[in-house]
Design a protein that fits this description.
Layout: H1 2-26, E1 59-64, E2 89-94, E3 97-105, E4 112-113, E5 116-122, E6 130-131, E7 136-146, E8 160-167, E9 173-180, E10 183-188, E11 193-198, E12 208-216, E13 223-230, E14 238-246, E15 258-265, E16 278-290
Antiparallel strand pairs: 1-16, 2-3, 3-16, 4-5, 5-15, 6-15, 7-12, 7-16, 8-9, 8-15, 9-10, 10-11, 12-13, 13-14
Length: 292
């Protein structure tokens, strides 16, 4: 009964917040693209991807599609890489459209950002891209592992983080997705949760893969994570893992919001450790939808 009362309160709060965000989004017409009005055309470099269907009951908040060919997709406040290298972040052609490429070379200080080898984009200064307690969101994104060297026995098994739901204020993420050997895993580090959501991506290098993470953001154990994938050749998403009754908003240091990050973050990797020197990854169609 207590949990149900909490969920009712959360839904009411989310609906009020959604109305404010929707009004703000209307002021960015032409910049924040309503999902479903246009079919994504970016594909396996020169091949279009299948059209995406509008999820039932979801209200679009933000769509970062890079159609205008700019690093911030024409969205005011969208954070681009802090790495100094000119090619740490670039817009690339993808089918009839564009995508964002992030590159990190280990051992080169020009690919270091915030003290670590990384190149990422983020929504920390975009109102529609922020996370607050009470939100119930769907996050979708497409990713392509560009000329990715696959894991072989004896290689370093360090992982590369490719997407994060991050607490602000220098906190650890609530969740992230990462490559691990030849798989892709979902992790919530502070909750000690981990699940493989793509068993083997080796046949999909240089192909677009789609991911969906649904989250109910709570400060108590009434939240959830739901992780789905859509692999090349598949027409719809498949649910891979669900975590129910978890506290999804759990920063170690005080903060009132969170945000998304995508790109390439290579913690604990080095040339000395035998890790692949250079990695490149493409992202496209990063979408946030309200599910409340």
């Amino acid at each position: 009964m207590v949990n149900e009362q909490r969920r009712t309160t959360h839904r009411s709060t989310r609906k009020a917040r959604t109305r404010v965000r929707t009004a703000a989004a209307a002021g960015l017409a032409g910049t924040l693209t309503i999902v479903g009005l246009a079919t994504a055309q970016a594909g396996q470099e020169d091949k279009p991807r299948p059209a995406k269907s509008e999820p039932k009951g979801a209200s679009p908040l933000l769509n970062v599609d890079y159609k205008d060919g700019s690093l911030n997709s024409g969205i005011p406040g969208l954070t681009t890489t802090h790495a100094k290298a000119k090619d740490a972040s670039s817009v690339v052609k993808s089918g009839d459209d564009h995508a964002i490429a992030h590159k990190v070379t280990l051992g080169d200080p020009d690919y270091v950002s915030d003290g670590a080898p990384r190149s990422e984009s983020a929504t920390n200064d975009v109102p529609e891209g922020k996370i607050e307690v009470g939100d119930e969101h769907r996050y979708e994104f497409d990713v392509l592992l560009k000329d990715w060297k696959t894991y072989e026995s004896g290689d370093s098994d360090s992982g590369d983080i490719i997407f994060q739901g991050k607490h602000a204020g220098g906190n650890k993420p609530s969740f992230y997705l990462m490559t691990k050997r030849n798989s892709i895993a979902f992790r919530s580090p502070l909750l000690n949760l981990q699940a493989t959501v793509v068993d083997d991506f080796t046949s999909h290098v240089n192909q677009w893969m789609s991911f969906r993470v649904d989250v109910s953001w709570t400060k108590d154990k009434t939240g959830y994570y739901k992780i789905s994938t859509k692999m090349p050749g598949e027409s719809d998403f498949t649910l891979r893992k669900t975590y129910d009754d978890v506290q999804t908003f759990h920063p170690e240091n005080p903060t009132e919001f969170g945000y998304l990050k995508w790109g390439l973050y290579r913690p604990d990797e080095s040339i000395e450790n035998g890790d692949v020197p250079t990695r490149v990854i493409y992202h496209d169609n990063i979408r946030i939808e309200d599910l409340s």
